[in-house]
Design goal:
Length: 293
């Protein structure tokens, strides 16, 4: 098998986890939440027609992205739901590449077991499992702050970290998600191979200047921006359907997420019927894993 084929084979069967589980960093930058709020309110650095802003960076070999958004859901509802580890296992699997999610308590520590894979249907056994420690740092009537941390990832990647902060605002809730992970030499090589071939036309959301012209960011920054955006949409979809009867909620949440995702051309991956079929099968797998724990 040629070297490049072996690389793609390895990348596919590690579930692209090195590129999709990027949701937080050790630093949230210099801007305060109040500054983010004012920027969103004035339309500065937002996506057109939304109260959403995205940014990404590559510093000291760490890859990071952040999304700030104003969601219409009351803060009390957001904070109560997201402070519970089990609800993240309803949010995260909406993403194309998340195949299943379970939660458990290990010696007093909440742990999320997240299975990542390719966009097509994959069983948990064929996916890569990351174990995230789930920690609520602050949860009161003024702020929710939480962190998910996984020390190890596929092909030598490390320091996966999810930090989310939420505060009440007049419109509902201001959310801030910042993401990062530490790549390895091998993961960087595999990512470069992907970006030079099947991923060469993928772009992100933030604009960069080149030769006097502005265009959407490409490369690894485009990858992490697309994925952090999909997690933002997953949180929004989760809350958009909470008023429905429980037996109707899952299907409605899938539809909500897919329609939001496909409203951005750079996020489109498959048609709705295929997505729904895959996610129904993967949801059944998740239930089976949960019952077996």
């Amino acid at each position: 098998m040629p070297v490049i084929n072996r690389l793609f084979y390895k990348l596919r069967h590690l579930g692209l986890a090195l590129m999709i589980m990027v949701m937080a960093s050790t630093s949230w930058g210099k801007a305060t939440l109040l500054e983010h709020y004012h920027r969103l309110k004035t339309g500065s650095s937002t996506l057109p027609g939304t109260h959403i802003s995205l940014a990404s960076s590559v510093q000291d070999d760490a890859l990071s992205a952040e999304v700030n958004s104003i969601v219409p859901t009351p803060f009390e509802n957001v904070a109560t739901a997201l402070a519970q580890a089990r609800n993240w296992c309803q949010v995260m699997p909406l993403h194309f590449n998340i195949k299943a999610c379970t939660y458990e308590n290990r010696n007093g520590v909440d742990v999320l077991n997240v299975y990542s894979g390719r966009k097509i249907y994959e069983s948990p056994e064929d996916s890569y499992q990351l174990a995230y420690q789930f920690e609520v740092i602050q949860h009161d009537d003024k702020r929710l702050s939480l962190r998910l941390r996984a020390e190890d990832g596929p092909v030598g990647t490390s320091d996966y970290l999810i930090e989310l902060e939420a505060v009440p605002v007049a419109e509902g809730t201001l959310l801030h998600i910042h993401s990062s992970y530490q790549p390895s030499w091998l993961s960087s090589m595999l990512t470069s191979a992907y970006l030079s071939t099947v991923g060469s036309d993928k772009v992100g959301f933030s604009q960069v200047e080149e030769d006097g012209e502005s265009h959407p960011v490409q490369g690894i920054r485009g990858i992490i921006e697309r994925n952090v955006m999909r997690y933002h949409l997953a949180i929004n979809a989760f809350f958009s359907t909470q008023s429905l009867p429980e037996d109707q909620r899952y299907d409605a949440t899938l539809l909500s997420w897919f329609k939001q995702n496909d409203s951005y051309p750079q996020l489109h991956e498959m048609d709705q019927a295929e997505y729904l079929e895959i996610k129904h099968d993967e949801w059944q797998n998740q239930q089976q894993i949960g019952r077996a724990q």
